[in-house]
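Changelog-linked ticket: acetamide example.
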Amino acid sequence: MKTLSLILCAAFSLGVAAEVNYQVVPLPQQIDIDASGKYAVLAEGMTVSYPADNAQMKRNAEFAAEYFGLSAKPADKKKPAEVSLTLGLKNDNPDAYCISVTGKGINIQGASESGVFYGIQTLRKSVMNEQGEVHLPYATVSGAPRFGYRGTELDCARHFFPVSFVKKFIDILALHGINRFHWHLTDDQGWRFEVKALPQLAEKASVRPHTIIGKNIGLRDPANAIYDDTPETGYYTQEEMREVVRYAAERYITIVPEIDLPGHMIAALSVFPHLGCTGGPYEVWGVWGIADDVLCAGNPGTLEFLKTVYGELCDVFPGKLIHIGGDESPRVRWKTCPKCQAKMKELGLKEEAQLQTYINKEMEAFLSKRGRQIIGWDETLEGGLSDKAAVMSWRGYEGGKAAAKLHHQVVMTPTSHCYIDYYQLKNHDAQPLAIGGYLPLSKVYSMEPVPDGLTEEEAKYIMGVQCNLWTEYVLSPDHAEYMLLPRLAAMSEVQWLQPEAKNYEQFLGRLESLRQNYRKLGYKYCSTNE
Ligand code: ACM
Ligand code: ZN
């Protein structure tokens, strides 16, 4: 092993090895490069140290070792490592990091373990495109995200994605400094969450016998749709999901699992028809859109079913937020269902929307006993929000704004800027079939998550922002990556940067280097900027 003094060259750049500039996505808040021209060398075979007896820092060091070809070891004052990972950065933001490259070596310090992880990612993206030995100019490089909730949603109900891809998706989030994975697990077209007490869900409700082809005439008319004859199947066992939780946690990503209620439930109704207002029969849906059939709000079995499902959901997913869906749930069946009408009478409710609030409140009470907080789509505002519910604003900014004014936490994800299932290029022939819309990279980048018209106090309730990848028309992992990248890069700057630090032209320059990172990592991406 070479000694530290040999490796930390107080030399001027001779143009032999590549010299990096730390200009990555998301852009650090500060990049101060020393005018001396001195640099430290980062090369395979060096050592990265971490504070002994901190398991998360050990794992961080193992990531650094893997990315840079180093060996990880506990810190030893007598034998300092070339790269050191430390805690204790003074910053109220736990995700803050500071990389210092000096004559003493390369130090990545975090305000917490997650901050160290983000510092490692910044260094990783800085050096990934270089071969062999890399010169790191003496510098101070620091960053901290604007929002605490930085999410991305993946719909695994419309099309099933195997655990191997879910892990790759998590790797992609980690590369972009994203810390919430909103996992959409159930829908009309397939149930993917194993419930041990109700095995029919995994066994049967996960099977869609056939799927509408393209966008033929029957999209909203199941009886007249033209279908393929390829069943779409798949579910996640609890063991698999626990493994995904562990994998995500190592990368400082918390999973927000979603079981959508009371609508988007046809797959569940196909095995429990008595939970629908008409009693069925129902079939796992092979078309896309909004179904009139939803859970019956007046049937006591409905709450019993939901508590069984969400009880097991809590056993698998330890994160605080549990997504209860709540979107696109027509109330037409409730209007004519004797059980739903009797329930409204019993509770003294004036309109059907309040029945949804009744279910939400029951679920909130159930989940808060388990230390959880509910989050739902902005339709949950319609019959009145339950006490502590957070809101995901998707039909625009208005729902989120109204919720913030009521002092409820909000995640912004309006279709206008965050729906990455939309086309990313104007020319439809240059990209795979998509659900519609047009959301170019530049539009994602332009997003401002905090709407006008909120006081400073109210604006604090905007806890973050996410983009959503619905998969009606996303049939494969490669296609999912293409839809994500590079729009996720634009989203990560929305999530990390203060508005005054954003600059689209400059971002496009840094994005080219990130695209090279994608190539190195074997990710599929769109290579055109619009
Ligand atoms: C949604 O896109 N239906 C939340
Ligand atoms: Zn009913």
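Closing comment: Example verified and attached. Confidence is low (pLDDT under 50) at residues 1-15. Residues 277, 296-298, 334, 337, 339-340 surround zinc ion (ligand 2) (CB under 6 Å).
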